[in-house]
């Protein structure tokens, strides 16, 4: 499978959640706020929106609650240009996820409501309704594997993507609050990683899969040498190491004055994939993903903060440059 060719097709089927984000004015705490801005959230939805804003195509596969919040999420997906053909409402007590977070770094608080999450109701039938040959790559984030029936459905989507000959891009995105136990998460995320062609995660996430943080870097290296074509090991302010075969690329970050700590990973993924699709080499694509992450943490919101191509190019042209490694 030609992974780069698949990404270069720039037409992604993205599996995973969409939710509602609510946040007060920059610097204000949730508990003292009187007004909030509402927009779209959820890792997979954010990645899809970021891809579209940078010129690609993306369709989301998920379940939403059959209520006003679910319809809000669908309307926001359409606002950002994400295809909602495979976004299916589910009734009953299932509810869309809700994130309340603050646009501040010192004392930052995030509260995530994920009880009875609608996206965990995604079924095998939902993913089997997708024509994977109509897309050039599949993208998902680890939360999709945290509960049933979504877990089994997501693994089925992986099988169908492989059968269609399109690469799988996996953001580990480990969120402990979504999982029944750390042991289950380590097993399931490792299985998903072994099936993926591109894996992106931070040092904590690879360390978690490896059994200890000290072993995380070697875990990333091993995956690149055994099953994955590209593995990106992110280290926060210390940059990233990207593995492809026997090659290791070390890259820095673009320092900015951060307004909040959220949204960076989703924007990084969208920026990296869109840059590969545009013909940039792997190192440049990782750096452009890092620039997208820097842009997002410096502004309120997640999906609305993700750059369009002119903003990304202007940032790269005017920034003093990345840190060295």
Percentage of residues in strands: 15-25%
Specify Rg, calculated over alpha carbons.
Answer: 18 Å
Termini Cα gap: 32 Å
The overall average pLDDT, rounded, is: 96
Main structural class = alpha/beta
**CATH top level assignment:** Alpha Beta
The tally of strands reads: 13
Instruction: Tally the helices.
Output: 11
Task: Kindly describe this structure.
With 325 residues, this protein is α/β, with parallel strands linked by helices. The protein has one domain (17-310): UDP-N-acetylmuramoyl-L-alanine:D-glutamate ligase (3-Layer(aba) Sandwich), CATH 3.40.1190.20. It is built from 11 helices and 13 strands. It has a 9-stranded mixed beta sheet with strand order 5-4-1-8-9-10-11-12-13, sandwiched between helices. Strands 3-2-6-7 form a 4-stranded mixed beta sheet. Helix 2 crosses helix 9. It is globular. The relative contact order is 0.14. The model has no long low-confidence stretch (mean pLDDT 96).
Topology:
Layout: H1 3-8, E1 11-15, E2 19-23, E3 37-41, H2 43-53, E4 57-65, H3 68-79, E5 83-90, E6 98-101, E7 110-113, H4 124-128, E8 137-141, H5 150-164, E9 168-171, H6 182-194, E10 198-202, H7 203-210, H8 216-226, E11 230-234, E12 240-244, E13 247-251, H9 264-277, H10 282-297, H11 309-318
Parallel strand pairs: 1-4, 1-8, 2-6, 4-5, 8-9, 9-10, 10-11
Antiparallel strand pairs: 2-3, 6-7, 11-12, 12-13
């Amino acid at each position: 499978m030609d992974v780069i060719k698949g990404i270069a097709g720039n037409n992604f089927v993205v599996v995973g959640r969409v939710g509602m984000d609510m946040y007060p004015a920059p610097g204000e705490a949730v508990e003292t706020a009187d007004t909030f801005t509402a927009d779209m959230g959820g890792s997979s939805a954010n990645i899809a929106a970021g891809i579209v804003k940078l010129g690609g195509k993306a369709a989301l596969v998920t379940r939403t609650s059959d209520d006003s919040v679910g319809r809000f999420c669908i309307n926001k997906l359409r606002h950002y240009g994400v295809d909602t053909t495979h976004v299916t409402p589910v009734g009953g007590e299932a509810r869309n996820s809700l994130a309340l977070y603050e646009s501040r770094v010192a004392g930052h608080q995030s509260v995530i409501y994920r009880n009875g999450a609608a996206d965990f109701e995604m079924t095998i039938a939902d993913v089997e309704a997708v024509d994977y040959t109509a897309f050039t790559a599949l993208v998902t984030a680890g939360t999709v594997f945290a509960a049933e029936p979504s877990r089994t459905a997501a693994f089925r989507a992986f099988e169908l993507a492989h059968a269609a000959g399109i690469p799988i891009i996996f953001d580990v995105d480990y969120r402990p609050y979504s999982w029944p136990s750390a042991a289950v998460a380590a097993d399931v995320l490792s299985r998903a990683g072994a099936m993926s062609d591109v894996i992106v995660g931070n040092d904590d996430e690879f360390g978690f899969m490896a059994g200890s943080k000290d072993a995380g870097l070697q875990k990333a290296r091993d995956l690149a040498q055994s099953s994955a074509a590209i593995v990106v090991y992110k280290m926060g302010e210390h940059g990233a190491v990207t593995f492809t075969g026997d090659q290791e690329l070390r890259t820095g970050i673009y320092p900015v004055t951060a307004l909040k700590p959220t949204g960076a990973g989703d924007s990084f993924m969208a920026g990296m994939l869109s840059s590969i699709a545009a013909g940039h080499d792997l190192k440049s694509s990782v750096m452009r993903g890092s620039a997208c992450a820097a842009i997002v943490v410096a502004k309120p919101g997640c999906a609305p903060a993700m750059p369009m191509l002119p903003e990304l190019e202007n940032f790269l042209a005017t920034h003093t440059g990345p840190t060295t490694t």
